[in-house]
Amino acid sequence: MKKFFLFFLYNLLFVSSIQAQQEKEAIKQMSAHFEQWYNAKAYDSIYAHFSVDMKAALPFTATKDFLNGVHEQYGKIKTRTFYKYVNSSFASYKTNFEKQVLALNISIDAQSMINGFQITEFVNDLPAAPERNTTKLMFPAKGEWTVVWGGDTPAQNYHVESRAQKNAFDIVMKDASGKSFKTNGKTNEDFYAFGKELMAPCDATVVVVVDGIKDNIPGEFNPIYIPGNTVILKTVNGEYLFFAHFKYQSTQVKSGQQVVKGQVLGLCGNSGNSSEPHIHFHIQNTENMINATGIKCYFDSININGQWKKDYSPIQKDLIKQ
Fold this sequence. Notes:
Elements: E1 5-8, H1 25-39, H2 43-48, H3 52-57, H4 60-74, E2 77-86, E3 90-97, E4 101-108, E5 114-121, E6 144-149, E7 169-172, E8 197-199, E9 204-210, E10 229-234, E11 240-246, E12 258-259, E13 264-267, E14 279-284, E15 294-295, E16 299-304, E17 307-312, E18 319-321
Antiparallel strand pairs: 1-5, 2-3, 3-4, 4-5, 6-7, 6-18, 7-14, 8-13, 9-10, 9-12, 10-11, 11-14, 14-15, 16-17
């Protein structure tokens, strides 16, 4: 069993935010019940307090198997202390299991039903993040692309509300009429961006690869695994380059692999919490997005609106041609 467990639901945005750091009474009660039920292996009680969407996403058999696995690897919960809120409504608890200290993160809906939980590594302090990248980066795709979300203001970039993704880009391909699809946009194959090669912006080490998330029907979302198929690269300067929403089973690299600048990572897709094929790219200061802080991305040399620019960070409506 892997050390990192992740089962959760979010709102239909691939963003997160830190909330007021005071434990609310409803989540305090639910987390205490969760601990009690987990220790007693009363998984049916935990499942009974799942929201409707959570039950659909994580059936009882899967819930039981998952929690049994946690028991086998880490044992019972001995103590649990509220730490902070992460990712919108998730209350994070420093949790002393019998065999290891981990973070237990729980989210509840307006009816106090569990709509998400995590058991993951516990990180005491967030490492400081540089304001921008120092590694020289190339734009990771060929052709003409339009930035639909990018920049420093909420009007330019809805990602600014997220600590990890505050400098993220969402980038699509459009034709002369401004459409991102050829005919009616009802299939992924109809979109210009779908299947385009995405490349390593620099020499780096692959640290995360997710490849098994199916592409969405355009206009629909997958709120269960928000980033979809994912590749994260680590640069020699400790920057983590985060690509999301790759096409299903299209990634061409493996975790631990060394890649060179321009090497194909995979194909542009529509997996995860994505409404159409596009590039989602951002830089963060740690591998785990739960604890990461975003780093502003500057490309070393990039053609913007017909002019080559050095050391430039694209903004909304920029036309990129590489």
